[in-house]
């Protein structure tokens, strides 16, 4: 029995002369030794059990590691040790694998055995082509559709600014920027070239500005209200970016970094944990998906602290969407007005566009409102309420189902109760890439995944779930595609979502606001960068400290007396700046420290300005320039800076 084998092996029953007995393979030799330990004859060798192989090197493992291995073998994972070297050999490797499995058992939701059991169910469903949404009927959920040029939107922004003082913010940081052609973390990427502000600094500035306007005082909270989910690849670099920049003005105690662990890869439909192709003592791992943010928050205890300290909302946002904070204030006000437990920020979507849709799904008495991926939406509609599938509404020219942009606002009280019930675990899915139509083998190992936006699947039907629909130019322009991918998407008539458009859409949004308020901003011109035809508006940017809302812009800028030519660049940094007459044909930068009140009166600036020059293929350029497809040539600039508090006036 295995117990007898363990007893023999634990006493050192394997001699050091075993290799001289016969010229056979390691597996044959090991089988012979097992047979010898059992008192059997070599010609009647028994194949060693996985646990017997472990017990042959029993001194290497703790009781907990042995128990875990035993449970894994019972779950069909005997292959983990089947290729081990004979007892006494490769001991460091064997210990390393056991330690890795123990660590994965601690960090994987439900432990490794639970993970394997769930994987078997999901892989079997995938192999048979089962539809997770089978039996559900979709409807357009309740929500608010906002006109960003309306008085209502201005009022909502102001109300939401107050609510921001009761909010925490969670940045679901992505990975490295390698896919984009950038060697650093994506949070370090410049959001645009005029100010040169990286994404992480921009988000910190927005949080500080909203907190200041709401009367929020950092030291009063006593807990972190800006959470960044990181990974092994990004954790240290994110921390270094914060430290090197003095936390971008935030209190260090107000920031928490929560590192996401990886989960094991799966080699086949039996959910065999995948060993590395070049290391038989290492399991391959991959990220589990950004849905882990909920379990990380639960484990950190932060949500409970938010409840204690009066935090009412938590806003989740992605790593490279510079426009998101333009949408958050009004959306917070909607959450408060509608009593939403979950508010999904959304934008209009064209039918069949490669973006998920917010849907209300019904099956019998069961109801849930959540994101449905675009490749699931069309067949779901065809099989239920729309034989034509995912088609545009003829009146609006857009799909009736809002486009999901993975930005969520949750009610903290409801969120805390749900995390206590679920430990933050959200439903998983598997997406294996099969070698062929038989679906018997994978092209490469897969893994279970989960998504942040699937949190609504876990909440009771009594919790109110809805959406806030905003115009694309206000809310959504992520940087997520490489130049080549972006060019292909643009050629197919889809948004390119590249570093090129991510920057230019910031200028478009600012120009749209100023034009709406009456400013004379010249129309954009068409240019081509990285093979993508784009509209280039005047490069107008301001820091969040200058203005967070449309009403703030209207108070600080006399738009009836603002004229900016198409090729101009205007940069405003400082809360105390006001424009009471400006004509700009060139480049103007105004910076003012806190406490400096600067009034621009009837100023006219004309100079050579800055030029966004397309890169020529193969031209020497920085990573950031290659991603965008242009370089900024600064021919001439008027820079006006005030580094001391006081009152100042700038006139021609």
List keywords for this structure.
single chain; 652 residues; alpha/beta; 8-stranded mixed sheet; 5-stranded parallel sheet; 20 helices; 30 strands; 32% helix; globular; disordered N terminus
Structural commentary:
By secondary structure, the chain is of the alpha/beta class. It contains 20 helices and 30 strands. The strands form nine sheets. The chain has an eight-stranded mixed sheet, sandwiched between helices. The chain has a five-stranded parallel sheet with strand order 18-22-24-26-30, covered by helices on one side. The longest helix has 18 residues, at 499-516. Residues 1-24 and 37-44 have low confidence and may be disordered.
How is the secondary structure organized here?
Elements: H1 2-10, H2 26-37, H3 50-55, H4 63-74, H5 79-82, H6 91-107, H7 111-127, E1 137-139, E2 143-145, H8 151-163, E3 167-172, H9 199-214, E4 226-230, H10 235-244, E5 255-259, E6 262-264, E7 275-276, E8 279-283, E9 285-287, H11 292-300, H12 302-308, E10 313-318, H13 324-338, E11 342-347, E12 357-363, E13 366-372, H14 374-382, E14 403-411, H15 412-422, E15 428-430, E16 448-450, E17 465-469, H16 472-475, H17 483-491, H18 499-516, E18 520-521, E19 525-529, E20 532-536, E21 539-542, H19 550-556, E22 562-564, E23 569-573, E24 577-585, E25 587-592, E26 596-606, E27 610-614, H20 623-628, E28 630-634, E29 638-642, E30 646-651
Parallel strand pairs: 2-17, 3-4, 3-10, 4-5, 11-17, 18-22, 21-23, 22-24, 23-25, 24-26, 25-29, 26-30
Antiparallel strand pairs: 1-12, 6-9, 7-8, 10-14, 11-14, 12-13, 15-16, 19-20, 27-28
Helix pairs in contact: 4-6, 8-13, 12-15
């Amino acid at each position: 029995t295995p117990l007898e084998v363990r007893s023999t092996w634990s006493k050192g029953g394997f001699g050091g002369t075993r290799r001289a007995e016969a010229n056979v393979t390691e597996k044959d030799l090991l089988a012979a030794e097992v047979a010898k330990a059992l008192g059997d004859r070599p010609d009647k060798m028994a194949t060693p059990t996985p646990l017997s192989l472990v017990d042959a090197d029993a001194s290497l493992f703790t009781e907990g590691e042995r128990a875990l291995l035993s449970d894994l073998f019972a779950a069909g994972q005997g292959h983990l040790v089947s290729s081990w070297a004979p007892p006494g050999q490769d001991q460091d490797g064997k210990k390393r694998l056991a330690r890795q499995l123990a660590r994965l058992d601690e960090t994987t939701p439900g432990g490794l055995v639970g993970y394997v059991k769930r994987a078997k169910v999901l892989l079997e469903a995938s192999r048979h082509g089962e539809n997770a949404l089978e039996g559900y009927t979709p409807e357009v959920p309740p929500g608010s559709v906002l006109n960003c040029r309306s008085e209502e939107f201005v009022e909502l922004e102001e109300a939401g600014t107050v609510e921001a003082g009761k909010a925490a913010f969670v940045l679901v940081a992505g990975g490295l920027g390698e896919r984009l052609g950038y060697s650093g973390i994506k949070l370090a990427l410049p959001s645009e070239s005029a100010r040169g502000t990286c994404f992480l600094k921009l988000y910190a500035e927005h949080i500080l500005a909203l907190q200041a306007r709401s009367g929020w005082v950092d030291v009063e909270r006593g807990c972190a209200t800006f959470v960044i989910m990181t990974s092994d690849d990004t954790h240290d670099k994110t921390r270094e970016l914060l430290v090197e920049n003095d936390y971008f003005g935030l209190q260090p105690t107000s920031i928490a970094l929560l590192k996401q662990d990886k989960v094991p890869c799966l080699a086949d439909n039996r959910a065999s944990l995948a060993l590395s192709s070049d290391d038989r003592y290492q399991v391959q791992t991959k990220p589990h998906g950004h849905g882990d943010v909920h379990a990380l928050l639960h484990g950190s205890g932060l949500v409970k602290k938010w409840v204690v300290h009066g935090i009412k909302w938590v806003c989740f946002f992605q790593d490279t969407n510079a426009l998101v904070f333009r949408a958050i204030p009004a959306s917070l006000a909607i959450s408060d007005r509608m009593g939403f437990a979950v508010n999904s920020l959304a934008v209009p979507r064209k039918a069949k566009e490669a973006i998920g849709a917010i849907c209300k799904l019904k099956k019998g008495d069961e109801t849930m409102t959540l994101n449905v991926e675009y490749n699931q939406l069309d067949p779901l509609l065809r099989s239920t309420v729309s034989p034509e599938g995912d088609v545009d509404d003829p009146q609006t020219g857009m799909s009736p189902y809002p486009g999901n942009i993975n930005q969520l606002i949750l009610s903290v009280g409801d969120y805390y109760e749900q995390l206590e019930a679920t430990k933050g675990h959200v439903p998983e899915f598997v997406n294996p890439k099969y070698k062929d139509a038989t679906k018997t083998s994978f092209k490469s190992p897969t893994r279970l995944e989960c998504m942040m936006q699937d949190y609504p699947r876990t909440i009771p039907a009594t919790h109110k779930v809805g959406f806030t629909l905003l115009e694309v130019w206000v809310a959504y322009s992520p940087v997520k595609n490489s130049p080549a991918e972006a060019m292909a998407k643009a050629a197919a008539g889809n948004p390119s979502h590249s570093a090129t458009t991510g920057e230019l859409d910031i200028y478009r949004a600012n120009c749209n606001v100023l034009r709406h308020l009456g400013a004379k901003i010249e129309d954009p011109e068409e240019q081509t960068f990285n093979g993508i035809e784009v509209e280039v508006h005047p490069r107008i940017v301001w820091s969040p400290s200058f203005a967070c809302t449309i009403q703030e812009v209207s108070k600080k800028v006399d738009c009836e007396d603002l004229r900016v030519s198409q090729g101009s660049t205007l940069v405003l940094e400082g809360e105390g700046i006001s424009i009471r007459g400006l004509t700009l044909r060139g480049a103007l930068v105004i910076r003012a420290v806190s406490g400096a009140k600067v009034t621009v009166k009837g100023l006219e600036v004309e100079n050579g300005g800055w030029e966004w020059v397309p890169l020529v293929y193969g031209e020497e350029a920085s990573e950031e320039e290659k991603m965008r497809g242009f370089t900024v040539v600064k021919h001439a600039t008027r820079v006006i800076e005030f580094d001391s508090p006081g009152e100042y006036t700038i006139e021609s």
